[in-house]
Design a protein that fits this description.
Elements lengths: L1 H18 L1 H24 L7 H21 L9 H28 L37
Helix pairs in contact: 2-3
């Protein structure tokens, strides 16, 4: 049972290895680097520890292995932002409710009987105090009052 679970855990990595061209290229580079390092070690024998090209080959191979492993790591799934959707739905619903309630209040304030009239008749506007701005007389055409 333990082996089947390990196989299930390894499956996404194997799929990524088989499908991803970048990962395959990095593994090829790593194998080439290790092969070059191995050949240099076989040729230099005791002096291999001082060989700078050997270290370059090993560094390149290690970098390729690291790049391949980072590319194969599971990407974390984006969190589902259900809260944002709920908040948006509540906000839209609240806005609609406010609009409906305001429409009913405006209709009742202007005495609309629901016959399709907008309620903007001559007696729809009432003057409440004397501090309101005065509109210039439209009959003179100049727009200036004396």
């Amino acid at each position: 049972m333990v082996n089947t679970e390990r196989a299930k855990q390894a499956l996404p990595y194997l799929r990524g290895l088989a499908d991803d061209a970048y990962v395959q290229e990095q593994i090829r580079n790593a194998l080439d680097g290790f092969a070059s390092a191995s050949r240099r070690i076989a040729r230099k024998r005791g002096k291999a520890a001082e060989d700078k090209k050997l270290y370059d080959n090993l560094r390149q191979a290690a970098t390729s292995v690291r790049n391949a492993s980072h590319a194969l790591q599971r990407r974390k799934a984006e969190p589902k932002r259900r809260g944002r959707r709920i908040i948006a739905a509540v906000a839209v619903g609240g806005g609609v409710a406010v609009l409906i309630s305001q429409r009913e209040r405006i209709k009742s304030a202007f005495g609309d009987d629901g016959a399709g009239d907008t309620g903007a008749g001559p007696d729809a506007y009432q003057q409440t105090d004397g501090n309101e701005a005065r509109v210039p007389d439209q009959s003179t055409g100049t727009g200036a009052s004396s």
